[in-house]
Amino acid sequence: MAMNLDKKSLSEQDICLQFITPSITQAGWLPEQIGREVQLTDGQVLVKGQTAVRSTGSSKRADYILYYKPDLPLAVVEAKSNIHSVSHGIQQAKGYAQMVDIPFVYSSNGDAFHQFDPQSNPVEQQITLDRFPSPDELWQRYQQQLSASQQQIALQSRYPSTEKTPRYYQQVAINRSLKAIARGQNRLLLVMATGTGKTYVASQIIWRLWKSGQKKRILFLADRNILVDQAKNNDFKSFGGAMTKISNRQIDKAYEIYLSLYQAISGNEEEKNIYRQFSPGFFDLVVVDECHRGSAKEDAAWREILDYFHSATHLGLTATPKQDKEVSNLDYFGQPVYTYTLKQGIEDGFLAPYKVIRTDLDKDLDGWRPKPGQLDDKGLKIEDRTYDRNDMDRVLILSQRTQLVAKQLTEHLQSTDPMQKTIIFCEDIDHAERMRVALVNLNPEQVQHNANYVARITGDQTEGKLLLDNFIDPENPYPVIATTSRLLDTGVDAQTCKIIVLDQVVSSTARFKQIIGRGTRLKEEYGKLYFTIIDFRNITQLFADPDFDGLPVGDEDETDEDQKPERKKKLKPDTDDTEGRVKYHVAGVDVFVLAQRVQYYSLEGELITESLTDYTRQKVNQNYASLQDFLHRWTEEDRKEAVVQELEQQGVLFEALAEQVGRELDPFDLICHVVYDQPAMSRQERVNNIRHSSYFTEYGDLARQVLDALLNKYADGQLSDLSDLQVLNVSPFTQMGTALEILRAFGGRPNYQQAIKQLQQDLYKVA
Q: How many C-beta atoms lie closer than 10 Å to residue 379's C-beta?
């Protein structure tokens, strides 16, 4: 009984150290096979005004993951303290196992193991500590479900890299693809949100198939040169001399890994179809990057390549699978073997959330109609009708509108950070150039410092394409602002892009996802935790489309201005082809901002469309139904910061809330004021109330000095938690004496802590 009592007094960490880890080790698991405290997700980032914080409470971490080989996890073990039952952690462990595709699930409180083995025995059962299965035992159970080729691929390790280790979803994508290929599936689709590492996943799939001898010659296809070069220089560099990029329409059959543009090996004329220099059975595997584009159509020039190498396994990669009346990726590649969405990436903390600034212009919403017989600035008679948002810069060019959009962006940059990498999506090349000129003229100081502060990056000019490399280079600050139409909407890895401006009509959900994908990369080392979308065309309404983060989504033809296939295609609304289009240029028409509203990405993965105050009330009331409930929790908690952190993890945006209220309030007063309609008291007002009381009379001179200094720091917003003892090690407390001397002035540490507790109770009194 004494032993049981002792065990129940142990922490979860002690249970792991004294009981669980020794049992696993005794079963034959080596230290390198035992993953401890394996972090699966980073924790969602929450936007707070102009800053962002990571919600560490939302991160997921497995107590144990056991690996047969480095890329072959077999078991997850969830540990609990002994005050819980043996099976208490099994549901949590099942959740982790489902995330990571782990077949065997265990829970333990140090008394025994609770086992779930859905492959061989779906009945949950307990096993003693000394009966935990060995690595070979679990592998024997697991391999019963695998063919010989599947076993061979499963045991083949990934390319060893000190730079990258696969995230959990990347590992799942790799393993599921390998399993499908090993069982003979020849058409596969991987759907992964932009910024989640599709090319890295592809390189690891190719490496393991190639090294295991399952696939000997592989072709990697993309429709943009930058995509091919990014793959060759980064994720594919491990293939070394076995790899080549097809260029100058030259074929060398001495290699095993081939990278190529569609356009580099195909064309209308038969002699341009150089892929036919390979035999139809030359390649074992063809990987199609951004396969939502030209490869989906049966009559596309690019599809002919895939049909020619029909005997090979075809793996499609996309963030936006295409599904409409005319064409479907799913018809060709089949249902995705794995899907990882933008929402999942943001929730896991691997992708950047966004803030949306929706700006409505009067001529966009109310429309503009010319006077009867009115001529434009070039002498063209303007067709008599009402022109609205869909016509702006496509048919009707109001010079004042261009100036206003440029002015709005400039003011935002100047009020936040003028060096934030920004992409402006314009209607066409002409619009991109006019926007560039407007921004240059509005930012003379920045342009004087560097002429490339603003640059047009479109496919019609070599200079723009050359500047693209500088724009996407995190180490190169210039260009800061890129105006474009189509060149930057897909495939381009603009890692540090912090602002996306939407000033073009986008009717395609798939293309909208690609555009948004230019901002979703998280780069904490460069200070990028979120990005801002400034929307002048109400395009962000597509976030509300159920298809936005689902499968599949409709799409329109996405031909790029600089990478058009040689086969003529029917023109669709979102293309950047202005040939034959009549445009009216009109100056002197005033344009005004009608409304502007800011929306935030919530913890639930939705834009907060209600007022921030309503949203805060909803979140707080989920935990504290009344003011008394909140006050009780606040009073009982000595570390007030703990309450604040809990609310932040649940989606309360204190900084943004303070901006809306318009006052610098303590988090306590923000909640009391916004949620429970209490008078808003500033920190200084609360401090004044204390000083006017008799609180200090019972303390000596040094103690009173310390308390007074604490209140000063609180009033100045320098100190959020008065109970933090570390504050005694900074000025002005270091001038008053050592931390020990200060504690002695109160009669010792317990008395000091009691004094601070009483101080906080008096400080946070509610009338």
A: 6
